[in-house]
Structure formats: C-alpha cells, structure tokens
C-alpha cells in the first residue's frame, strides 16, 4: 500500500510539471452557461475500434465551440467493467477503452484553451465490485480476518431489501442500485472521506478539471435528506478548499420542494427535473391546447420562488430519460422540436444539452436506447452500445444539418450564441412583464443591463404583445414561420417565435 501511494504521488508531481495549468481568464463560471453532456463511448471514435474515446472528443471540440457550447460534462470516464461505467474500480485513472490520463489532461487543456469548462461524473455513493477496497473487504469477510476496508462499506448479517448476500459468509452488503454490482460506501467512515478528498484533489488539481456532476445524491443516505445535504455540504467545502470556484451540479431526482432543500448544502446547482422529460412543465406546456404561456409561467414562477439564489440547471432530457423528440412529439414536427429548445434556452441558469439533442436524436425504453451512437454522418459513427432494442434516427445527420440554415442544429447554434451575446438571459434577475394565453414578455436585468424576451407558444397563430415604443428588436429566433414585426408599441409574433428586445 505504501509503495502504491509513493507511486501515485510521483505521478502527481510528474503531471503537474508536465502539463500547464488552465488559463485564469476562463475561470469565471458564470460565463459558461451552455453545457453539453457527452457519453464518451457513443460520441466519437478516434482509433477505429468502434468505441468512442477522449481523443475523439478532442477532435470534435471545434464543432462544440462553433455550436456555442462553453461547458462540457463527461459521463463516467474512470475504469469500470460496464458499458456505462458507473461502477468504478479505480477513481484515479481513465478506462482503457477511452484512453489514458495523458489523453484526459490533453482534453482538459484543449477545452481551457477555447475558454470552455470541463466537469466529469463522480459516482461516490458506491463503487464497483471489482474496486480494490471491496475486494479486500470481501476477502477478509470470507476468511474471517480483520481489515480496515470492511468499514469502507455497509455490511450486516441480516437479509432485507437492498442488501445483497456476500457469497456464503453470512454477511450482506448494501446496494441501493441492486443488480448493478455497485456496493454502497460507508460515507461516515473518516478514512473513506480522506480517500474521497484525495480523489477530488487529483481531478481538480492534477487533471485540472473544473468540477463534478454528482451522481445519485439522494442515495448517499437513502431516505435521509438531512444527512445527504450535510454530506453534500462537506463535498462543496472540500472542493472550494482544494480549488476555489469549482462547479458542482447534483442529480437530485425529486420534486421542486426537495430540490430546493438540497440547495441548502451550498452545492451550486441541481438538475431541474420538474421541467424535464415528457411530463415536465416545458414539454407539457408545449403539448397543451390553450394558454400554453400562462401554464409555463405558472410553473417557472414556482421554480424562481423556491430557488431564489441557487444556479438553476434546466434540461429537457439526459442519459436516463427519453429523448426530447419523443417528449414533444417532434419526429415529424421540426417547429415544436426547435421551440422546445428555445424555451429551455430562455430559462435562467446553466442549461444542459444531452449529446445529439441538437440534431433531434431519438431514444426511449432501456437505457442503451437513450445512448445511441452520435449521428455525425453515415460513415463516421461508433458502435451502438450493448443491450439496445431499437435504433432510430428521425432527423438527418449532423453534417447534413450543418449545411442547412433551417435545420434544428443551426437553430440550437443560434440559441447558444444568443445566450452568449446576452449574458443577462442566463444570469439576470427575471420579471414577467406581460403574460396572456400563448404569449409572454419577460425582462432580465444584470449589472444595469437589460433585455426583454418575448415568446409565442402558439403552434399556428400569430400573437401580439404590447411593448414600449422605444424598444427595438435585437434578435429574432424564428422557427420557420416568418419574422416578428414591431409597429407602434406592438410586437407581432409568428407561431413559435422568440424575440430578444433591447
């Protein structure tokens, strides 16, 4: 164990000397509000083995930057026996399928050179069965010997739900994600927390990433929100101690009230699940038959009142949910697919886009269906993930959409650029100026600068709203139904229009 620790420290020193630190001019996280989630395995293959890898991600950074994304979230990249890699076997390394630590540091530096940010998935509710900590704990219990690693996990001698038998030892280990080979860590153990601090330090400072997406935060102490919040507070404090300004976003798959409670931990963001998926208030507002804007505003106002200070993290879909095209019934309706992305991007906070959403990828049912190969073109795709039951691409590939000014991809590109040009959209204080039926007008103010956002939720009808006569159109984000017109204090909005006014 001592020799391994010396070797680890030597690697840390070598990498710190070998790789330069990211530029300080890119450290302001508030400017990085367009986040893009990548499942590395299905994104881009660089060595023709059919599996996406870190070099593949590097090769697509120009695309991502041109699209206006300025933050990247990588799903798990650490060694793991599964295709999804949430059952980690080594927290201080890269899965060989994806590359090496040198590849990872090259990616981090390339991201920072572009003024972008990079966070990675951190699954610390549990490890994989093959993690050395669990292997040594298991061996000790099988042999009847003592081991400090036994207390790294939650073992007991009673069978019950979520407790898995450890062979014929008479012991059972906690596994909240049963069937996944993911034994839960004992997060109260001081030695475990010391190890977690080393892990945080390694990724934040040696690999120079900018933060973490925290997996399954409600399962740290299942059924005990107070203890979960306390543990998240510890994580946030450790990250700030190790690297001030680190960004943390947590997966709290709960209702709005519970999500608001978790913000008390000090963690920067929690994903806004009430707004996501088919039944979230974004998609359900669009599918309504009347007063769509009023319904959206009613729910959005609840969010702003519940979470007045935290950084919101709205999204439409991710690796665990059905794709947005299905949620908004947009397979043959490009206009509603565009407008769903438009509504999302006019929300405050850090907006998260799952890879392929910008080109209208499809996927539902079993998890592998939601993680299909990125559709760059018919000749440049990874293998499909194992376990898929359906493969469908409802929209053209990225290279075709890039060449089409009216494509969903170019609409998303425009949205990102608008958010970058008007930072008050993401970071400003919101006031609803006018809401009636399918039309809303809201103002965002940041550091004395303001803009108005007008939106028409109607799929077929032109709508109008009153505006001040000295107002001018700054940006018209239309879905193909025509341009907005401003006449004598009235803004006329074609169907599914979004207009930025100054």
Alpha carbon gap, first and last residue = 63 Å
Strand content: 15-25%
Major sheet description:
7 strands, parallel
**Structural class given helices, strands, pairing?**
alpha/beta
User: What's the gyration radius in Å?
Assistant: 24 Å
What CATH calls the topology of the largest domain is TIM Barrel
| Sheet with most strands: strand arrangement | 9-8-7-3-2-1-10
Q: What is the typical, i.e. mean, pLDDT?
A: 93
The total count of helices amounts to 15
Which homologous superfamily in CATH is the superfamily of the largest domain?
Glycosidases
What is the class of the largest domain in the CATH system? Answer: Alpha Beta
Taking pLDDT < 50 over at least 5 consecutive residues as the criterion, the unreliable ranges are 1-29
Residue share in helices? 25-40%
- Per DSSP E runs of 2 or more residues, the count of β-strands stands at 18
Number of domains: 3
Shape-level CATH architecture of the largest domain:
Alpha-Beta Barrel
Q: What general outline do the C-alpha atoms trace? A: globular
Fold and architecture overview:
- This protein has helices at 2-18, 54-59, 61-67, 101-113, 132-143, 190-206, 225-242, 256-262, 281-287, 292-306, 324-327, 334-345, 398-402, 408-421, 423-427, and strands at residues 34-38, 71-74, 117-122, 155-156, 163-165, 172-174, 211-214, 247-250, 269-270, 351-354, 429-436, 439-446, 449-456, 463-466, 473-477, 485-487, 490-493, 498-501.
- The chain has 502 residues and is of the alpha/beta class.
- It contains 15 helices and 18 strands.
- Helix 6 (190-206) packs across helix 7 and helix 12 (334-345) packs parallel to helix 14 (408-421).
- Residues 1-29 have low confidence and may be disordered.
- Strand 5 and strand 6 form a beta hairpin.
- The strands form 4 sheets. The protein has a 7-stranded parallel sheet with strand order 9-8-7-3-2-1-10. The protein has a 5-stranded antiparallel sheet with strand order 11-12-13-18-15. A 3-stranded antiparallel sheet has the order 4-6-5, with no helix packed on it.
- The protein has 3 domains: 2-126 and 185-424, Glycosidases (TIM Barrel, Alpha-Beta Barrel); 132-174, no CATH class; 428-501, Golgi alpha-mannosidase II (Immunoglobulin-like), CATH 2.60.40.1180.
């Amino acid at each position: 164990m001592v020799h391994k620790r010396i070797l680890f420290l030597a690697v840390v020193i070598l990498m710190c000397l070998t790789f330069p630190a990211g530029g300080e001019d890119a450290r302001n996280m508030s400017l990085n509000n367009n986040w893009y989630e990548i499942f590395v395995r299905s994104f881009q293959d660089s060595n023709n083995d059919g599996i996406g890898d870190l070099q593949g991600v590097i090769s697509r950074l120009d695309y991502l930057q041109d699209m206006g994304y300025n933050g990247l979230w990588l799903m798990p990249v650490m060694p793991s026996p599964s295709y999804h890699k949430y059952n980690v076997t080594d927290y201080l390394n890269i899965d060989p399928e994806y590359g090496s630590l040198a590849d990872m540091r090259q990616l981090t530096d390339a991201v920072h050179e572009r003024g972008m940010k990079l966070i990675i998935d951190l699954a610390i509710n549990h490890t994989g069965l093959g993690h050395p900590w669990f292997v040594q704990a298991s061996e000790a219990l099988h042999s009847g010997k003592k081991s400090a690693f036994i207390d790294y996990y939650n073992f007991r001698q009673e069978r019950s739900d979520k407790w898995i038998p450890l062979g014929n030892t008479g012991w059972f280990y906690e596994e909240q994600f049963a069937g996944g080979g993911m034994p839960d860590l004992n997060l109260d153990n001081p030695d475990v927390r010391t190890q977690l601090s080393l892990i945080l330090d390694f990724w934040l400072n040696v690999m120079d990433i900018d933060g973490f997406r925290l997996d399954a935060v409600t399962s740290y102490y299942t059924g005990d929100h107070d203890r979960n919040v306390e543990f998240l507070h510890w994580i946030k404090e450790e990250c700030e101690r190790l690297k001030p300004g680190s960004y943390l976003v947590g997966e709290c798959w709960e209702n709005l009230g519970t999500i608001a409670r978790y913000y008390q931990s000090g963690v920067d963001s929690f994903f806004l699940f009430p707004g996501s998926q088919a039944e979230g208030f974004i998609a359900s507002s669009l599918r309504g038959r009347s007063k769509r804007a009023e319904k959206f505003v009613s729910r959005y106002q609840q969010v702003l009142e519940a979470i007045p200070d935290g950084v919101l993290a709205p999204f439409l879909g991710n690796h665990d949910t059905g794709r947005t095209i299905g949620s908004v019934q947009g397979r043959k309706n490009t206009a509603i697919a565009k407008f769903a992305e438009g509504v999302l991007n006019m929300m405050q906070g850090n907006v998260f886009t799952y890879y392929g959403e910008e080109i209208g990828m499809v996927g539902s049912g079993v998890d592998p269906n939601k993680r299909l190969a990125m559709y760059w073109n018919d000749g440049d795709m990874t293998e499909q993930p194992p376990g898929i039951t359906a493969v469908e691409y409802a929209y053209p590939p990225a290279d075709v959409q890039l060449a089409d000014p009216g494509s969903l991809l170019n609409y998303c590109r425009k949205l990102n650029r608008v958010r970058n040009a008007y930072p008050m959209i993401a970071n400003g204080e919101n006031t609803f100026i006018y809401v009636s039926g399918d039309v809303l007008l809201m103002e965002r103010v940041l550091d004395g600068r303001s803009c108005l956002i007008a939106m028409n939720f109607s799929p077929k009808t032109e709508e109008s709203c009153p505006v001040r006569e000295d107002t001018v159109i700054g940006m018209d984000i239309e879905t193909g139904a025509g341009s907005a017109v401003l006449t004598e204090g009235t803004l006329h909005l074609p169907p599914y229009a979004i207009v930025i006014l100054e």
